[in-house]
Batch of 4 targets.
Target 1
Amino acid sequence: MDDSLLLVTVAAAALVVGAAAGWAARAAVARRRLDREQSFFGLPDGSECVLVTHRDSTSAHWSIPRHDALALLGLASVVETCGAHAEVAPHDTGLQGFGARTEFCVGDPTAHRRLAAHLANLLPGVAVHPGDEHGFGRGTFAVGGSTYRMEPGAVEYVLLARLTAVESGRPVFLAAGQRPVTHRAAVRHLVRNRARLARKHGTDGQFCLLLKVVNSQAYGPDVVELVADVTKAALAPAEPKGHRAGV
């Protein structure tokens, strides 16, 4: 074999080895990324999860409000990426307790029974106003000494939380908002920022974020601002009755 052919052979072999090494490195990075994502969502390969939503009160049959349906579709993509399987269940059917499988609970806590129960049991520092006889103030959040009342179509709030009720149990994700458009906004925030949230709070950590949806009548769920990380206040025991939170 002359020198030229030898050089070509060596160069080709180096290219093959380099390509194989690059592919292996990219595969390893992708696998680690998927492992982190599966840990964060509590969705290992082949696992089961449940998506819990409420019924559309304007429909005679069981149907899901449009924005809630789109939020569930966003979650379904995460479930598929993790190699898991999802069940969709209405909020007012008997479901098992939490921790056995990952749960995504999406809706309005004044109408969504299971979501309201999760808030009461897992986020005792959060209060949600049911509204007066005319519906005024319905859905107003009180947390950390402040209240957050919506201005429909202009300013609306939603709580996005990852909670672990029992040690070594699967997480419960909550998107508890004042209107369906806020539920969709919270889910989009979760899906888009899952890597950053996992780095900040850990793949097994708890958090509760208060988000503000701005001018949804013009922008839908697209303009979202983080108001505060209210984890500490939300996890704290409820304040004694008679104490009035400041605005």
Note: The first helix runs from residue 3 to 41.
Target 2
Amino acid sequence: MGEKKASADGDRRIGRRALLIGGTAAAVGSAVLARDELARLWWRAPGVEKPRVQGAVDFRGAQWVAASDANWRRADRPDDYGIDMVIIHVTQGSFASAVKVFQDPGHGAAAHYIVRKDGHITQMIRELDVAYHAGNRAYNERSVGIEHEGFVDRPEDFTDEMYAASARLTAGICARYAIPVDREHIIGHVEVPGTDHTDPGEHWDWERYMRLVRKVPSASA
């Protein structure tokens, strides 16, 4: 599952109203800030962000259950942070326990999605926003995190229904953001620099999973 505390990767939520238009204009005039950093500042100005619909999901068929806002940071991706990665997690517990901890403001972590053993998908954070799931701030900002119900040492937890549903989800994310469908851009939590997590573990069938993702018509090449 994701990191225990948001402070583990230095992520902090920034109040939208804390940055005034005048401050943004001053930043634009500064030659010190890079162009991408200016874009990140600009969207935080009052009234400048993508429209949001309460309870909307990014993956058709997903159920919306909101995570605690202490476990993610409001953003406007991919305009302020480009998305070029999907990170695969395993909950090390039940689906219900994962939902519960992601709704707990004291947990300090949550992923965008949870895939249940029967293939049901719950979305808890919009893809627009930065979820605290990777244990690495830069990877949080550039990725979408997908949790999978189960335990890393129980291969029977990774059901056919789970693989199929997760593959459709990942293929959709890759198509939305033009992410290459390869193991450099679809990775396990264990592969994130600086993490002490081992998921999805040795029993996660990467060859099977990648084959399923590529078979989805919307998947990128």
Note: The longest helix spans residues 160-177.
Target 3
Amino acid sequence: MTAKATRYLYLARHGEATADESELTENGRRQAQLLGDRLRDVPLAAVHHGPLPRAAQTARLIGDRLKDVPVRQVETAGDYVPYVPGKEELPADAAERLLAFLEQFTAQEREEGAALAREAEERFTGPVDGAEDRHELVVTHNFLVGWLVRAALDAPPWRWLGLNHCNAALSVIRYTPGRVASVLVYNDMSHLPEDLRWTGFPPEARA
């Protein structure tokens, strides 16, 4: 039997982006640098990021603060809809609003997103082969953070909806052999000063 070790998956949403999402704002760049400083002493094996500029720039800025950690682009860390529920799966009082939000995505986007979500779970979750624990960072977008946190909690597939992640906030999931997945940290912004917190988060939900 192949030995298994614990995986620590660090999830971060990209830093604050410009209105056209072509690059990070000055605040976004600072958020990424501060997140890199926070992760400097974590024994990361790799930083993975999606293909869009805001995620790629965030990952590079984080990588600049780390020592000899490879930064890799992977499509599965991109921005996509991981799952589209049927009306019968949703709470009655929220179903119409949630389905109206999802209508903006085409049938092709929905199909491709579901396939990428399956690949992301296969690539980034669960214990790892070997005797050594592995720490990995994925710099991604709000939808994928919500999807992987939902999966770790074994919540219904539709429940990625309603999970919001701030720019450059950090979540950490632990996958230990023989144990259920554990969300150790969610949407933590302790590395950011007050003026850089809560960006990218719905105003009505800010604490």
Note: The helical segments are 26-38, 53-64, 95-102, 107-124, 142-152.
Target 4
Amino acid sequence: MPLAVRYMCLPVAFSIALSVSSPAAAEVIASKSYSYFDISGKTADELDRELSRRGPTASGSSARHPGATKIRFGGEATYIQDGGRCRIGNVKVTVHTQIILPRWSSRRGASKELSLIWDALSSDIKRHEERHAEIARDQARAMERAIRALPQQRTCEAMQELVSNESARGIEEHDRQQARFDRVEAVNFQKRMLRLLNNRINGRAGGK
């Protein structure tokens, strides 16, 4: 059951407000939710087919995957016009992640060996998706810092353009980091699964 996950993200949409004078402030709001899809099966092949048939799809693709993380960025910025210059006032970047995970509904009566394999696989899927969400949260913080540090401009229109450009760069960097993570994970999947299985087998043997 190869691990292949995708994520979806939307461009940051900053709403704009002008302020005469107020202290600069910054905020990152991160939220996370979970949803599940049920699969059934009594063999590894059956579980693999169920994941391929019922798993979530990635944006722009009909291929299904064992798990996924949907990511949505947003934000608000206020600009302060003072002394013929425009600067950043308040900055808020939001990021919501929805982690979609498989749930094995017919585990009762399955073999111990299959349960061991499933526990290792499902824990790895969850760890992988949690890391996607963590990358998104880290990038939201980086975007907030970058926008807050933008230099003053002569007009707030120019300031707004800088914010838009910086948010676009932040999204592009986020996508590069997510793609890089997926590439590394795909290369190491077999070794990682063998290590997880060995750890669980040894843990079970040690508990006897």
Note: The longest strand covers residues 85-104.
